[in-house]
Design brief:
Layout lengths: L9 E5 L2 H4 L22 H5 L23 H15 L3 E5 L2 H4 L10 H16 L3 E7 L5 H5 L8 H17 L5 E5 L9 H5 L10 H25 L4 E7 L3 E3 L4 H22 L8 H8 L9 H7 L4 E5 L4 E3 L23 E2 L5 E2 L1 H15 L3 E5 L17 H20 L3 E4 L22 E3 L11 E3 L1 H11 L7
Parallel strand pairs: 1-2, 1-12, 2-3, 3-4, 4-5, 5-7, 6-8, 7-11, 11-12
Antiparallel strand pairs: 9-10, 13-14
GO cellular component, one term: cytosol
Protein name: 6-phospho-beta-glucosidase
Organism: Winslowiella iniecta
Length: 478
């Protein structure tokens, strides 16, 4: 490993409000879409059914996000642990529903603003830079049930009000922001980022692409507000990136991989970072029967207010095959595809590919020439504490070590990388399964899948390992 991390490299960790905070109905907070999504391994199957309509049914389902890990009340304790690890930054999200409970109010909920002021001040007291996601899979429930999600242009104005409120309140203290978490993930699960379910267009390309357009306008609007509030603010986009391979060298599989790369990994970033719809967009729209409603001024706004950096999550690569029906599918891989015989997989079937991260970094930097920020990466695993509540999670250390090595190699390749915030730096409720048992953190939280337990925090072996990584600025990965 030859690459050296820059001296100002942002080592840290990442969470999302709906997965850690709990307190889902306290101090004026309204319900978000995730508050209406059941927990359990069938979570994504349930929300993909035509019957799902966001109705809460506590007789049939559990809702672990309602309690989370109680970070809302315990953030000081948690941030102190992050500081002990040496975090340079902490990526978290502001719950839209704490500021505008239903998304449509004209005045914000002051209790919500006061809470995030405390969280920000606590971070800054330890010298930790807040990295804030404006919308992380937690739009107000009313905007999904009564407005039909992001396909409705009305949401642009609601989001603008929210973004302006928090940017004006916190823009003098918070330098790093992102607009929409994993905006491109709507290709696979549009409920999370766009608020679309089957009966509001989740299966319809027209609804998804219109929702994306509206989000692009909202994103550029947020960038514009940030520039006005404080020119020092760095506003990024955020995508889910899965390095894409063809299963073999058959030209059809190579073409499939190329087109998938464009449609999934690059489409949203081409607009948010490149400032315009890409050359292949019209062909893609035609193939899918999409006709966008674009209002006057939209394209100029998108062109004038591109993001400053590209944030992305990287968990796995995906391998595509169109020609051989006998190839095994990649069971459990979040984005589908076929099994890659050269890769191992996690307990949840997510294929582990550190070299794919180096490829991703090179692909993104080559295309956009903007700073990159890995804002999610990590290993979800079942951790089994011993009698002293200690977890020797060498499997997680090994995973992270290999990915950090790949980052260093990409820096050596010439990539400009700003920072690294592993996902779920403290155990939290999984997005894909709504479970606590799928753990990512350096810190163990004593709660089960029903959110029963003491809630006590315990340091895993990876805690001291990551502490050493940060202290050495990535030089000591032993």
């Amino acid at each position: 490993m030859n690459g050296k991390f820059p001296q100002n490299f942002l080592w840290g960790g990442a969470t999302a409000a709906n997965q850690v905070e709990g307190a889902w109905d306290e101090e004026g907070k309204g319900p978000s879409i995730v508050d209406a999504i059941p927990g359990g391994k069938q979570r994504l199957t349930i929300v993909s059914s035509p019957e799902f309509d966001f109705s809460l049914d506590p007789q049939r389902f559990t809702y672990p996000n309602h309690k989370g890990i109680d970070h809302y009340h315990r953030f000081k304790q948690d941030i102190a642990l992050f500081a002990e690890m040496g975090f340079k930054c902490y990526r978290f999200s502001i719950a839209w529903t704490r500021i505008y409970p239903n998304g449509v109010e004209e005045t914000p909920n002051e209790a919500g603003l006061a809470h995030y002021q405390q969280v920000i001040d606590e971070c800054l007291a330890y010298g930790i830079e807040p990295v804030i996601t404006l919308s992380h899979y937690e739009m107000p429930l009313k905007l999904a049930t009564e407005y039909g999600g992001w396909k409705n242009r009305a949401l642009v104005a609601f989001f603008e009000r929210f973004a302006r409120t928090v940017l004006e309140r916190f823009g003098d203290k918070v330098k790093y922001w992102m607009t929409f978490n994993e905006i491109n993930s709507a290709a696979h699960f549009p409920i999370m980022s766009q608020g679309l379910i089957v009966n509001s267009g989740a299966l319809e390309p027209q609804a998804k692409f219109q929702a994306w357009h509206n989000q692009f306008v909202a994103s550029s609007t947020a960038v514009k507000i940030a520039r006005e509030v404080n020119p020092q603010i760095q506003m990024g986009c955020m995508i889910l990136y899965a390095t894409t391979y063809a299963w073999d060298c058959h030209p059809i599989n190579q073409l499939t991989a190329l087109q998938s790369q464009q449609a999934f990994n690059l489409y949203c970033t081409d607009v948010q970072a490149g400032g315009k719809y890409p050359y292949y967009a019209k062909s893609l729209w035609k193939k899918l029967g999409v006709e966008l409603s674009i209002e006057p001024g939209d394209l100029a706004l998108i062109a004038d207010y591109t993001v400053d950096y590209i944030g992305f999550s990287y968990y796995m690569s995906t391998t595509l095959n169109e020609t051989n029906p006998d190839v095994d599918s990649a069971q459990g891989n979040l984005l589908g595809g076929v099994r890659n015989p050269f890769l191992e997989a996690s307990e949840w079937g997510w294929e582990i590919d550190p070299v794919g991260l180096r490829i991703a970094l090179n692909q993104l930097y080559d295309r956009y020439q903007k700073p990159l920020f890995i804002v999610e990466n990590g290993l979800g695993a079942i951790d089994k504490p011993d009698e002293n509540n200690y977890i020797a999670d060498d499997y997680r250390i090994n995973y992270l070590r290999k990915h950090i090595e790949a980052m260093a190699e990409a820096i050596d390749d010439g990539v400009e990388l700003m920072g690294y915030t592993p996902w779920g730096c403290i155990d939290l409720v999984s997005m894909s399964t709504g479970e606590m048992s799928k753990r990512y953190g350096f810190i163990y939280v004593d709660l089960d899948d029903n959110i029963a337990g003491s809630g006590n925090r315990y340091k895993k072996k990876s805690f001291s390992w990551y502490q050493q990584v940060i202290a050495s600025n990535g030089a000591d990965l032993s």
